[in-house]
Specification:
Elements: E1 39-48, E2 61-68, E3 75-80, E4 96-100, E5 107-114, E6 126-134, H1 135-140, E7 145-149, E8 160-167, E9 173-182, E10 195-202, E11 208-213, E12 228-231, H2 232-236, E13 243-250, E14 258-266, H3 267-270, E15 279-281, H4 285-290, E16 299-309, H5 313-318, E17 322-330, H6 354-366, E18 374-380, E19 382-384, E20 389-391, E21 394-395, E22 404-406, H7 407-421, E23 423-424, H8 431-442, E24 449-457, H9 464-474, E25 479-485, H10 492-497, E26 505-506, E27 509-510, E28 516-520, H11 531-543, H12 546-557
Length: 579
């Protein structure tokens, strides 16, 4: 268990007696925020062969971590490790605890200094170099262990840094609980009450946030509710002593449910399980204030409490599952002539067009989870040289045998090159590119690979029936589809493919899972013209569902994560003194 910490922006690092900041973990875990972090990870830092800046002894290194704000790209100090005296191979004890979201690109910078005095001012110490990476790069490396060269001092070898990420366990626990009640107050004139429970977790400012409602049990004063499962994060944000308030209501058809009473508890109390400690008096404060003889409005008893540790998305990534990213771009004539500024494919030398922005926003995050960084890039709806045949599944790099491009920059290059060689045409058919990726996904169903297809399109789909059939078939495979709509068209048909409201079906067969996420790019355009923000918002929305879609495939197939490779154990050095 770990205590909640101040958000990074508010934290004032504590001072040790030596004057250097003590705090290495300032997690941005605001309980008021609607998006609860996917999980928390703990970063451990080690270095090998640091530069030696001291004349008579070895360097006394410290590591300082910075994170980057999305909008203005400003680097902010996140925390510092301790100082370790007299070593070029430090294994820092103090960890950095960070929130991890799959759908966000978290840029990190690790700076290293040789500490020469007690001053907390970094400019007073010798700079030993730095390393840039993303949190996704660390998590996505084999065994969540990233080893990279330290750079920043021209002409010098600055050594290497090893950063390992470990998911914090408490984020992954769920609890299965069941409650019953006895002798609740009768609230209905003609019958008994129809009781249900509402669970609320307390926030730092004393307010409460609802986190669970039970079903209604009709016409009884002694209800037994069904067991329910809730994550420990949702129940108490990982703080076992935080107050949990439970309110008891009598359900009314018109929504004006009658308050019967309430009680408070905590995760730690509940975890004692069924016992005399977990029988709670339901108190109605109004009645208690009015009636001298008032005892309670009934009791609620905990019948069972079972902790389950969920396997997480990161368990699979750590066990070596690769995420394969494929992009498919719409080359239909409705996009407009690429040489004209009005075209959605316009090649503006000064800024990315909407296709480029969507591709980069999503691709730059997913590429961290793909070790070879080779991405198939396809186009559809164009006439191809030399004979002008129409293709709905062509390689952007012109090589159908090997459509792979190196990195997202390679995909961008192939996209711009193909705009100069193909003729925009039509119609807008999705099924061929979906089936293309599905063929690969069908050949690897053991959980070692998962496929994400990004389709970027300007419009109205021509092969709706075939696309629906392709999606229904693909829902049985380890794949997800992201569709980004660019331009001003009406995208009603796309909403139908995104099975959030009604699960998609074809010929009476329903999709096994919801695997499609559709968003119109225009919803993300920042009014101030800040494209970095537009891209970050787009990526956040389209990628947020991927971990759950990924887990739903693994659960249905009963695929467990592979064990992670053995953890890195640094060579044992002489005990270091720390200030």
């Amino acid at each position: 268990m770990f205590a909640l910490e101040k958000p990074a922006g508010q934290a004032k690092p504590g001072r040790s007696s030596g004057g250097l900041p003590k705090m290495a973990s300032v997690g941005d875990f605001s309980v008021l925020s609607s998006s609860i972090p996917a999980t928390k990870v703990e970063l451990s830092v080690s270095c090998r062969n640091l530069l030696d800046r001291d004349t008579f002894s070895k360097s006394d290194p410290i590591c300082v971590l910075y994170t980057q704000a999305i909008g203005n790209k400003e680097w902010r100090e996140f925390g510092r490790t301790e100082v370790i005296d007299n070593t070029l191979n430090p294994d820092f004890v103090r960890k950095f605890i960070m929130d991890y979201f799959f759908e966000e690109r978290e840029n990190l910078r690790f700076d290293f200094y040789d500490v020469d005095s007690k001053s907390p001012n970094l400019s007073k110490h010798d700079f030993l170099g730095q390393m840039f990476c993303t949190l996704g790069e660390i998590v996505g490396s084999q065994g969540s262990r990233l080893e990279k060269s330290i750079v920043g001092i021209p002409g010098k070898k600055c050594g290497t840094v090893i950063v390992t990420a470990e998911e914090l366990g408490c984020c992954r626990d769920s609890v299965l609980m069941q409650f019953c009640a006895n002798k609740l107050d009768k609230k209905d004139f003609f019958g008994k009450s129809d009781p249900f429970l509402v669970f609320l977790r307390s926030n730092e400012d004393g307010s409460f946030t609802i986190c669970h409602k039970t079903e209604v049990v009709k016409n009884t004063l002694n209800p037994v509710w069904q067991a329910f499962k809730i994550s420990v994060r949702a129940l108490c944000n990982g703080d076992y002593d935080r107050t949990i308030k439970v309110e008891v209501y009598d359900w009314d058809r018109d929504g004006s449910h009658d308050f019967i009473g309430e009680f408070t508890t905590s995760y730690r109390e509940l975890s004692r399980g069924q016992s005399q400690f977990n029988v709670y008096e339901v108190i109605n404060p109004k009645k208690k204030g009015k009636k001298k003889k008032y005892i309670n409005s009934g009791t609620v008893t905990l019948l069972s409490f079972l902790i389950e540790t969920e396997v997480s998305f990161l368990d699979y990534i750590k066990g070596g599952t690769q995420i394969n990213f494929t992009v498919a771009i719409d080359f239909t004539a409705s996009n407009g002539n690429p040489s004209q500024p009005t075209s959605l494919h316009y090649m503006n030398p000064y800024q990315l067009n909407a296709y480029g922005m969507a591709l980069k926003a999503v691709g730059e995050i997913i590429q961290d989870y793909d070790s070879d960084k080779m991405f198939p890039a396809l186009g559809f709806g164009a006439r191809l040289p030399p004979d002008g045949r129409v293709s709905h599944e062509f390689a952007l790099n012109g090589n159908p045998q090997n459509p792979y491009c190196h990195g997202i920059d390679g995909v961008m290059e192939a996209y711009y090159r193909s705009l100069k060689s193909v003729q925009l045409y039509g119609p807008t058919n999705f099924a061929p590119v979906i089936n293309h990726v599905a063929r690969y996904a069908a050949s690897v169903k053991d959980g070692s690979q998962y496929f994400v297809l990004l389709i970027i399109t300007d419009g109205v789909i021509s092969d709706m029936a075939q696309t629906k059939e392709s999606i229904v078939n693909a829902s049985k495979l380890p794949m997800s589809i992201i569709i980004v709509g660019v331009g001003p068209a009406e995208f009603d048909a796309m909403e139908e493919l995104d099975g959030d409201v009604v699960r998609i079906s074809s010929r009476g067969k329903f999709a096994e899972r919801d695997i499609v996420q559709f968003v119109p790019f225009r919803d993300y355009i920042d009014r101030s013209g800040n494209h970095v923000l537009s891209m970050a918002r787009l990526a956040k929305d389209v990628l947020a569902e991927i971990p759950e879609q990924f887990l739903s495939y693994m659960r249905v197939r009963g695929i467990k994560p592979l064990p992670a490779p053995p953890p890195y154990t640094p060579p044992i050095h002489m005990l270091q003194t720390q200030i």
